[in-house]
Design goal:
3 helices; 345 residues; KIB1-4 beta-propeller domain-containing protein; KIB1-4_b-propeller; mainly beta
Length: 345
């Protein structure tokens, strides 16, 4: 019964999108009202701001000395891509401030089948259209990863280097099937045949796998299902989900010394984020409004996310409540939930 009540809980109402803030989220933001703060203090002030409204208000006056960068956006919390009904336009929802950030994506809302919002990369929203599906998306050039893998389990992996005109296809030897791939400290790891970890070397047509540890047997098999790779503080993580009775997330760390997955319940105060199609990012600690040692997972419904505490195993289902929010039972395969991280730009 307690779980059922938790699932029905709604978040507080969002602030009106175009409303002028009456107070700032950080004391440093009060300098926005001062006549002329010293130029050498602007970068430090900006790095402490926790509201994008405050950041762009300051940048409007100091654009030359304030380019968007990881340092300038260091305290900006994650945002959730949401839909505005009935226009199907999109906005970014600030979790702790309950505020919408409106923007315009490079396509018309009347052509939803022609494109998908895919993922994020280094803080940026990454998109693609079906018309250009044979070519690497332009956003690839902004990533430091030399390859981009297919998302669904298969023996073939599509990859490209920045500047390539076409995707390359590499094939793994049978019976290996790649379930997930992730870069951690410039090493590409793969989750193979569901549970086994391997490092990957890619060539034009060959997928070379170097397995770590022994095969996983029934006794050492991690609990749950819907397996995905993740990372936290340069550690390689294995994340599983179990939604049979209540929402439970299990997190395991790969211990290289013993060659196996070990269950963990602490992230050192950091927070993991899962998108609809897999791992998104690890941030923290100490982001305003974001809980440490937790896992935030985008839910199946528009504007829904789960907050799972690794410490006590409780899961809260949250909803982005704002003017124009879709019905709570509205699923969207065209526009899956996506996290965007300004602090990782």
């Amino acid at each position: 019964m307690a779980t059922e009540k938790r699932r029905r809980r709604h978040s507080p109402s969002a602030a009106t999108p175009n409303a002028t803030p009456t107070s700032f989220s950080n004391p440093e933001a009060a300098i926005l009202h001062s006549p002329s703060p010293p130029l050498d203090l602007i970068p430090d002030i900006t790095s402490r701001l926790t509201s994008l409204e405050d950041f762009f208000a300051l940048r409007a006056s100091y654009r030359a000395v304030l380019p968007p960068s990881r340092g300038a956006l260091a305290c900006q919390s994650p945002l959730l891509l949401v839909a505005i009904f009935p226009s199907f336009s999109e906005a970014l929802f600030h979790l702790s401030l309950r505020r919408l950030h409106r923007f315009r994506l490079p396509w018309g809302h009347h052509l939803p089948p022609s494109r998908r919002t895919l993922h994020y990369a280094h803080g940026y929203l990454v998109t693609s259209t079906t018309a250009s599906s044979h070519y690497p998306p332009g956003s690839c050039s902004s990533t430091s990863s030399p390859a981009s893998s297919s998302a669904s389990p298969r023996p073939n992996v599509q990859h490209c280097h920045p500047g390539d005109a076409l995707w390359r296809v590499a094939t793994a030897d049978a019976p290996h099937v790649v379930d997930d791939m992730l870069f951690v400290d410039d090493t590409l790891y793969a989750l193979v045949n569901g549970l086994r970890l391997a490092t990957v070397e890619l060539s034009d047509s060959l997928l070379e796998l170097s397995f770590l540890g022994e095969e996983v047997d029934d006794e050492s098999k991690p609990a749950g299902g819907q397996f995905t790779l993740g990372e936290c503080g340069a550690d390689v993580l294995f994340i599983s989900q179990d939604h049979t009775e209540m929402m439970v997330y299990h997190v395991y760390r790969w211990v290289f010394e013993v060659g196996k997955w070990v269950s963990i319940t602490s992230l050192g105060g950091r927070t993991l984020f899962l998108g609809f199609f897999g791992f998104a990012a690890c941030i923290g600690p100490d982001y305003p409004g974001i809980r440490g040692d937790c896992l935030y997972a985008a839910g199946p419904r528009l504007g829904e996310w789960h907050e799972y505490s690794l410490a006590d195993g409780t899961c809260d289902v949250r909803y982005a409540d704002y003017p124009g929010a879709p019905p709570l039972n509205n699923n969207s395969p065209i526009r899956p939930p996506v996290w965007v991280f300004p602090s990782l730009c």
